[in-house]
Specification:
The complex is a heterodimer of chains A (429) and B (284). With 429 residues, chain A is of the alpha/beta class. Helices cover 22% and strands 34% of the residues of chain A. Chain A folds into 2 domains: 246 residues, P-loop containing nucleotide triphosphate hydrolases (Rossmann fold, 3-Layer(aba) Sandwich); 126 residues, abc- transporter (atp binding component) like domain (Coagulation Factor XIII, Chain A, domain 1, Distorted Sandwich). Chain A has 8 helices and 19 strands. In chain A, the strands form 4 sheets. Chain A has a 6-stranded mixed sheet with strand order 5-6-7-3-8-9, sandwiched between helices. In chain A, strands 10, 11, 12, 14 and 17 form a 5-stranded antiparallel sheet that branches. In chain A, helix 3 packs across helix 4 and helix 4 crosses helix 5. Chain A is globular and about 70 Å long. With 284 residues, chain B is mainly alpha-helical. Chain B has one domain. Helix content of chain B is 70%, strand content 1%. The chains are: A alpha/beta (429), B mainly alpha (284). Chains A and B meet through strand 1, helix 1, helix 2, strand 4 and helix 3 of A and strand 1, helix 3, helix 6 and helix 12 of B. Strand 4 of chain A pairs antiparallel with strand 1 of chain B, so a sheet runs across the interface. The structure holds adenosine-5'-triphosphate (ATP) and magnesium ion. Adenosine-5'-triphosphate (ATP) binds next to strand 2 and helix 2 of chain A. The site of magnesium ion (MG) has 2 residues of chain A, from helix 2.
Chain lengths: 429, 284
């Protein structure tokens, strides 16, 4: 018996481009047939995954990284048999479970108890297995009290916890995980990472996709870097993440990024995002520069309050800054619009020198969001903040906090603050 | 082969081969059987959700055919005087409506089976056939509940089912196979072309008038009766009436034609569905 559990040989998947390959209305098919009078337009194809080969040994935890559209999800879907390859083949030894989102198969009308059974069965557990683990799942989810309440009355956090509890009790020999850690609050993410660590120590083989390089580094031993569908680097995780970072920051002063059209079910979507430094499109900034983010969006139906959120992440994978206007009562349009531009004014940039990426999400309500991970990249250059040639210690943290240091004698009474808060930017820059 | 060898084979983890789709027949009944619990859970979910969303739940399963029966009895029976094969008109219409409603509801549910579950289809693997199959099976509960009303109805008119009742399960099976065959075609087409969903109600309506629901097939000349059987639902409905009430002639050549037709639709449906299956996750 060999200990290679996944063997992939020259696998490739081709999609039709333009908008994503999507279902057609019969009407379109008919009208196209008439319009093109017999001649069919040559089709454009892209290879989402191309000529990918690798092997994974029993018990290895492999991180799959790469930029947006590199083909990570497509590769997982091929291995999970959700979609079939165009060429090549693969061989997997053992029971497989795929975790491409949390809460697969949940139905809002059913109770928590019923959903555990349904989702468990859909993810590949047998009924006996679910019955056996039921109490454990409920305990892990911490929603005992609501277990007989329909899911539609759950808060989204509770639903997520229940969903993750089910997923965490899967016991496949091979686990394929796609970015489930990027949802939920920080505590939840921490819990997920903890559980993932347990799973990987349990000798299971895991293929793990994430943009969170920190998590990838702690969880995975080896990695595969995909670029435009092909394997760019593979090997020990540190070399792979390093290669990824290098490639990412190499000559990327692209201050504006156009976003490919999302799937049909998105009702509002972003068309392009850009980064502005002191009012000019630019992705190279200095600490204290005035930074803003600009999002061009469209909506299927007129909307009055688009909800936008952003997250700035450092190259080490730490989440540095995030904000959204969900709870802001006033940030909206006077009349509903179907397209527009949103500007997020961040003010003076409190970030240390380093490389950062920005992720965005846009929605009309929190349940159907258009989410783009790490689309924009910018770098913050060293800056002589105090004008004395010394630089802030960027190795310890990525936020630069304009702290005031006051010094007083031991028996002096404490003075209240009278000075105005210091500004970061030099006047008249 | 030694015992040690055998256990070794059993302990060897299942090997899964992934390759491009090839050939026109890849339907894997063995795998489908392994996923039978999932089919059970889909059926269970469909029934639960359907009854939770309605105020009177299972009572609809009786009300729907019963009210239609009254309308049919009034317009087709009393006003148009269509013949009812010597059966009391209420029994005649109800015993025709039950299988018909099972069929039309199953067809509608099966059509939507793929598109309504697209969020699952794009996230996990299971044989996609499980979806239309469970759509067709979940209608059986409604059918069974509707059958309950037939008992007092037949008792009232002193109709006692005879030995022909033994063939009832066979006709039921034929109805299930036909619903599945047509459902496979429609669900696969609906995944590719969303307007199929709008066509189905018309299709169901026309189909009903081409089936002996509101009239008896005896109005079709005996010479052409077998041709009429090309509509498998004709054989099913006639068979239902005959097996439940024992009145009239057993459907002969017609049922053979219906059976062959149903099997043909099912086989071609499987082929078409499976061709769609390999790309469905990319297009829904
Ligand atoms: N169903 C589809 N039809 C057409 N094109 C598709 C489809 N799914 C993916 N693609 C394309 O294939 C490419 C790879 O997509 P994929 O989702 O695998 O990227 P990814 O690496 O997972 O990106 P992300 O980091 O954003 O999740 C993209 O260009 C995408 O537009
Ligand atoms: Mg992805």
């Amino acid at each position: 018996m060999t200990d290679t559990v996944i063997r992939v040989e020259g696998i490739g998947k081709r999609y039709r481009v333009g908008q994503r390959e999507s279902y057609r209305a019969l009407r379109d098919v008919l009208s196209n047939a008439f319009r093109s009078n017999g001649r069919r337009k040559p089709k454009d194809f892209i290879w989402a995954v191309r000529d990918v080969s690798f092997e994974v040994k029993q018990g290895e935890v492999v991180g799959l990284i790469g930029r947006n559209g590199a083909g990570k999800s497509t590769l997982l879907k091929l291995l999970a048999r959700i979609t079939r390859p165009t060429v090549g083949h693969a061989e997997l030894h053992g029971r497989i479970a795929s975790l491409l989102e949390v809460g697969t198969g949940f139905h809002p009308e059913l109770t928590g108890r019923e959903n555990i059974f349904l989702s468990g069965a859909i993810l590949g557990m047998s009924k006996a297995e679910i019955v056996r683990k039921f109490d454990e799942i409920v305990a892990f989810s911490e929603v005992e009290r609501f277990i007989d309440t329909p899911l539609k009355h759950y808060s989204s956090g509770m639903g997520m916890r229940l969903a993750f509890a089910v997923a965490a009790h899967l016991e496949p020999e091979i686990l394929l995980v796609d970015e489930v850690l990027s949802v939920g609050d920080v505590l939840f993410q921490q819990k997920c990472i903890g559980k993932m660590q347990d799973i990987s120590r349990g000798g299971r083989t895991v293929l793990f996709v994430s943009h969170n390089l920190g998590a990838v580094r702690t969880l995975c031993g080896t990695g595969i870097l995909l670029r435009d569908g092909i394997v760019a680097t593979s090997g020990p995780i540190d070399t792979v993440t390093a290669a990824y970072m290098d490639a990412l920051w190499q000559g990327t002063n692209s201050h504006t990024v156009t976003i490919p059209k999302p799937p049909e079910r998105c009702n509002v979507w972003m068309e392009s995002v850009s980064i502005l430094c002191n009012g000019e499109p630019n992705s190279i900034l200095e600490t204290g520069d005035h930074m803003s983010l600009q999002i061009k969006f469209r909506s299927r139906e007129p909307i009055q309050k688009p909800i936008i959120g952003y997250l700035i992440r450092s190259s080490r994978g730490e989440n540095a800054v995030n904000a959204n206007n969900y709870f802001l009562p006033s940030a909206n349009y006077p009349k509903p619009v179907t397209q527009g531009t949103i500007i997020c004014d961040l003010g003076d940039l409190p970030l240390m020198a380093g490389s950062y990426s920005v992720s965005f999400w846009l929605c009309r309500n929190p349940h159907e969001q258009h989410h783009v991970e790490d689309v924009l990249h910018f770098s913050v250059e060293e800056k002589d903040i105090w004008g004395n040639g010394a630089l802030p210690t960027k190795s310890l943290s990525c936020l630069w906090w304009p702290t005031q240091f006051r010094f007083q004698r031991t028996n002096e009474p404490i003075r209240t603050l009278e000075l105005p808060a210091p500004r970061l930017s030099r006047p008249g820059r | 082969m030694t015992a040690a060898n055998t256990t070794n084979i059993l302990n060897e983890p299942p090997v899964l081969r992934i390759a491009p789709p090839q050939g026109w027949w890849e339907v894997d009944f063995h795998e489908l059987w392994q996923f039978r619990e999932l089919v059970y859970f889909f059926v269970w979910r469909d029934i639960k959700v359907r009854y939770k969303q309605t105020a009177i739940g299972a009572a609809w399963a009786i009300l729907q055919p019963a009210l239609t029966m009254l309308v049919f009895a009034l317009f087709f029976g009393k006003l148009a005087h269509l013949p009812t094969e010597g059966l009391p008109i209420l029994v005649f219409y109800y015993s025709g409506l039950l299988p018909w409603m099972y069929f039309s509801n199953s067809l509608t549910n099966a059509t939507a089976a793929i598109t309504q579950n697209q969020n699952i289809i794009t996230k996990v693997y299971f044989p996609r056939l499980a979806l239309p199959i469970s759509a067709v099976l979940s209608g059986l509960l409604d059918f069974a509940i509707g059958l309950l009303l037939l008992i007092p109805l037949m008792a009232y008119y002193h109709i006692r089912p005879g030995i022909s009742l033994l063939l009832f399960p066979a006709f039921l099976l034929l109805a299930v196979l036909m619903a599945l065959g047509a459902g496979l075609w429609l669900s696969a087409m609906n995944a590719m072309y969303r307007d199929v969903r709008y066509v189905v109600p018309f299709l169901v309506q026309f189909w009903m008038f081409a089936s002996p629901v509101a009239y008896a097939s005896s109005i079709v000349p005996a010479k052409w009766r077998w041709l009429y059987g090309l509509n498998p639902m004709a054989g099913v409905i006639e068979g239902f009436r005959w097996s439940l009430t024992g009145r009239g002639d057993p459907p002969g050549a017609m049922i053979i034609v219906s059976l062959l037709m149903a099997l043909a639709v099912l086989a071609t449906g499987l082929i078409y569905f499976q061709r769609m299956e390999s790309t469905v996750a990319d297009v829904v």
